[in-house]
Fold this sequence. Notes:
The protein is of the alpha/beta class. It has helices at residues 3-19, 21-24, 57-64, 71-78, 108-120, 131-139, 154-159, 205-213, 226-234, 245-254, 286-301, 304-318; strands at residues 27-28, 35-36, 53-54, 80-85, 94-95, 105-106, 123-128, 145-150, 160-162, 175-180, 197-201, 219-223, 240-244, 260-262, 278-282. The strands form 4 sheets. A 6-stranded mixed beta sheet has the order 2-12-11-13-10-14, with helices on both faces. Strands 7-4-8-15-9 form a 5-stranded mixed beta sheet, with helices on both faces.
Amino acid sequence: MRKNQVKKLAASVAAALLSTTMLSGCSIIGQAPTVVSEESSLHHDTDESSSPVSGSESSEAAHSDSASGSRLADILERGYIEVATEPYFAPNEFIDPSKQGDDKYVGADIELARYIADKLGVECRIVPLDFESVLSGITEGKYDMAISALAYTPARAEAMELSNGYYFDDEKIEYGLMVRTENLDQIRNADDLADKTIVVQSGSLQEMFAGEQVPAYKELKRVSATTDGFLMVQEGKADAVITSITTAQLYIDANSGCDMTIVPDFAFTVDESTQGTRIGITKGETELLNKVNEIIDGVVDEGVYSKWYEEYKEYARSLGL
């Protein structure tokens, strides 16, 4: 897919999201990448005026009014779970623009969300948000859980309950740099970024790498979706994007002619404690956490999630994502 085709797909995805505003209880603003300036702190608050999607006030009120004192009991009583996700991270969660309503949200994480709902005997309601709103929506108790390719970080573990890991790559997940091919001779590792502009997804593990493992840079830009970061580098608005190497390779495979390359023989140092993708749940909701962990352990033991992941990798490629 050429660059202009990527933009057309992004526009159609944004339009599809707009059509589900009434279903998800979310408001959706503009289609352009959300860029947060360097002045923001590493763990900055969400700026609702510039975020693509903001949280549902009605959902927050509904959950806070629960007389049970337990979110699990509240879920079972109302008959549905609200799952916050940022649907632009294939193959975990993404959008099939050929489908309508909640059916257009697909991916291995979406399968897991619906599987958990089925095990609880309730309906699954997907709430599409930008990534920072996914995180703040859980820490503030607006939604029941976040299933959005969450990695473990110490700060995240302080802010919310994190489930057992449900997906572990056969090989260690690696994070590196993707640059325009023409700049490969200038950028060989993190030490070469002192006079460069780098871009990361806001609130992500990659943002932590920028703060802790990049000695110096000219400017740090934050975007709401990793694909926005890819486009910024591709269009010359940034010099390098910090990214999962697997995700970067998917983008390159789907966009022949993009003239982007993963910097070879370089990867950020990953703490073993960050391995494994997890579900985020509001702090203190241990009854729900224990139930989710019970379901996750079954999924892991049976190898179900790994099968979903491989299936949706091919699905995403078929859509050119």
